[in-house]
Amino acid sequence: MSEEIMDYAEAMASFDPVLGLEVHVELNTATKMFCGCVNQFGSAPNSNTCPVCLGLPGALPAVNAKAIESAIRIGLALNCEISGWCRFARKNYFYPDMTKNFQTSQYDEPIAFDGYVELEVEGEPFRIPIERAHMEEDAGKLVHVGGATGRIQGADYSLVDYNRAGTPLIEIVTKPVYGTGAKAPQVAKAYVAFLRDMLRDLGVSDVRMEQGSLRCDANVSLMPKGASELGIRSETKNVNSLRSIEQALNYEIRRQAAILASGGKVKQETRHWHEEGYTSPGRSKETAEDYRYFPEPDLVPIAPSREWVDELRATIPSPPDVRRQELQARWGFSELELRDAVNAGALGVIEATVAQGCPPQAARKWWLTELARRANEAHLELDELPITPAQVAELQQLVQAGTINDTIARKVIDAVLAGEGDPAQLVETRQLATVSDDDALSDAVERAIAQNADAAQKIRDGKVQAVGALIGAVMRESKGKADAAKVRELIMARLG
Ligand code: ADP
Ligand code: MG
Ligand code: ZN
Questions:
Q1: What is the DSSP letter of 31?
Q2: Please, what are the domains in the chain?
Q3: Which pTM value belongs to this model?
């Protein structure tokens, strides 16, 4: 149940919020962090497992090189120092989804540390200091069966799916973030959105908050205005949408303000966010000692060479907001066109389509209209549709050359999505090319005139708008393939 909360503006009059954001990112490597199992969301339960990720006695882990590469690239994009030598550590605890009774993580030797992110909220700049980005593995997933909510409370029994166990994770942790004032919840939301875009641009993760490949734990504490000592924080776990991050922090700030204003003390604890709009207490926090961290003896230390790090540095794209502006200028998009493309997650596919020779406006049109509609219907992201940027560029070329019109193009898209072939080949084998050949069209025009005597007479009498009915008849007969401009010309030459 919800607790007493203070009005937000009133809370801001007495307190300054301090944020601490922990973001977990699942990497999209082909295989898991320490074994060769495929790293895939949505497979049949427990099908992607082996002795290593099941934690069977005697099984030995080996580090996934691609995951190290992604970790370093993320660190570089966060303006971090990259460690020249670091180790994994065992974080010991018992939980049914943890096969080994410890999580292989990093503790005091993270691969990346001391960075920052710069972002804007409503035109105001904020600099978010990054404490570290470290590597670890995800745990399995518990599925609670029975009971109304899917939670453990009230469930009849629980099942464990170890497919997720051993998925490579990067945890990005901020230093305490001061000075965001009343905008704290918005800054937190903007920061996570920034990370999502940055990670997508890096190509290292699917960054799907709703599937859990990007998760945020939101810490916040309050300092009485003018104080210099940090207050006690709460940590709201696994807030899984941008909107919820903002709402959960807003709630926590108001809850803590009510406690402090009445002379109480905030409890250091984890909390759960409820979509109905409040948080509730979880467990009280373990301390580092509870985990009995020690260096992982089964893995060799990681020592990336300076040359490799510099090579990777050259692959880091501009920060998302800078990149957006570059693309907008290069493509000549309006503010609105760019924003729509960003919101649809279409920048990557548009860029790839343009790289295949498609004009930017045409690439935008295909991805944001026809293809966005189909992606939406199929509950897929644009880049998951079974059509490639090269195929879209090829389709556009056919339209531009007048080989097909938009109606036929839509049919071609259907066929490509059904896996039936490439656009040019489909147009060829199915004879979908626009008919603009005079002889073929003249016959069809004659038939249309004969079958629509009324309309024909109107045109003869000078009522030119009646031509639409005749063009329509020819288009129907040709199943959309006739060149409409040509048909009009022929009709007018015959009747006008
Ligand atoms: P834990 O393992 O307890 O979650 P972490 O150090 O991983 O601790 O994360 C805590 C997060 O909260 C970090 O982002 C840290 O900078 C931030 N933080 C620490 N103390 C405070 C505080 N008093 N108020 C707000 N944020 C804090
Ligand atoms: Mg934490
Ligand atoms: Zn495995």
A1: B
A2: 8-312 (no CATH), 318-429 (no CATH), 438-495 (1.10.10)
A3: 0.78
